Structures are given as C-alpha cells and as structure tokens.
Prior knowledge:
Elements: H1 3-68, H2 72-92, H3 101-106, H4 112-123, H5 129-145, H6 156-178, H7 194-216, H8 218-240
Amino acid sequence: MTEVDQQIERARAAMARISEDYRGQVGAQYRAHGKRLKRKAVGVGTRLAFICAVNAIILIAAAVLGMVVPLGLFGGLAVLLLMAAVTIAIAIAPAARAPSEKVLREVDIKALPSKTERWLEAQRPALPAPARGLVDQIGVRLETLSPQLGRLEGREEEAYEVRRLIGEQLPAFVNDYARVPEPLRRVERNGKTPDAELVAGLKLIEQEIADMTARLAQNDLDNLSTRGRYLEIKYRDEAGQ
C-alpha cells in the first residue's frame, strides 16, 4: 500500500468516526426529545382523567342532592359553573416540581438516575444550546446506568462514587454555572468562557457515567464471554468430531 493509499485510508477512518459520533449524538437527542414528549403526553392525559373524575363526582353529588331538594335553573347553573371552575383550576395548576438537591443526596440509589434526570431536565431551558445537547446525552447515560444500580448490594464504595457524581457533583456544577450573571457567561476568563467551561464539564460527567456503567457491567460482560467460549468449545468442537 502506497503512502497516498494510507492517507486515504486514514481519512476514511476519521470520517467514519466523526459520522459515528454524530449519529450517536443525534440519536441521544432524538431519544431524549421523545421522552420529553412522552412525559408531556402522560401529564396531559393524567390531568384530563382527573378533570373527568372530579366532574363526574360533582354530577353524581348534584343528582343525589336533586333527588332531595330540587335544584331548579339556578341550581343547575351553579353546578355548571362549579364544573367549569374545577376544570380551569386543574388545567392551569403547575406541574409536579423537579426534585430538590436535598432529595438527590438522600434518595435511594436505585431511584437516583431518574430523579437526577428530572432535575437536570428542569435546568435545561436556562443552559446554552451546546449544553442542552449534552443534557440529552447524560439523560440517555443515566437511563442505561439505572438497571445496574439494582445490583450494588455490598458494593458500598461504588455506590458512594455513583451518588457523589450524579447526586452531588453534577447538580453542584450546574448550579455554579447558574449563579454566574447571564452577561458574564460569554466573557472569556482564564482562556475560557463560563459557557465553554460548562460544556467541557458536562462532557467529562457524561463520559464518567458511561465508564461507571461499563465498570458495573464488567462481571456480566465476563460471564457472557466465558459462556460464549464454553458454548464454542462444547458444541462447535463436538460438531467437528
């Protein structure tokens, strides 16, 4: 292979890596966007069901009362106004609040990734655009990490590291950025703007969550590899005899 061919091959490999990274980022953002839409749809459906249930109770109560005391025109109008008021009140009621940092520090380790993801999602609108993409990727990483945490019994050091990173360091880092006055976030200081520091820190956190997931899955990976070799030795060698 000539030097030109080698350069072409290296260029192709570099383009392949860039394309793979891009697809991974877009996929993470697409999955995160789908999850946000799903949460919104569930929230709307829950409110509608609650409105229907409350209005049904009002109608039943009015019907029972009407059998004892005739409601008349004004009574019927009062029932309709009550139903309208209840519907409006439920529709405009604020959504469930994101968990606090205290909750993140104290919640059971198995629920920590989902709680942290909800907290991070609530901070998303105040972050610069590049950081929002990383928030989406961190959300996907947390979703992947979550099943691994159900098997941390007796692994206190690893549980401590998980809690420290996603229950303490991540919220503290984002809050440090949030306390910087908005006009100063794009002003360079020590060679970096606060926006750039935020993005760099979130990239490190995202990678560390991925590394944690790989470390926690190491036993499963080893078991899979061992069983695969056993099956190969047991059945492929026997078939060749």
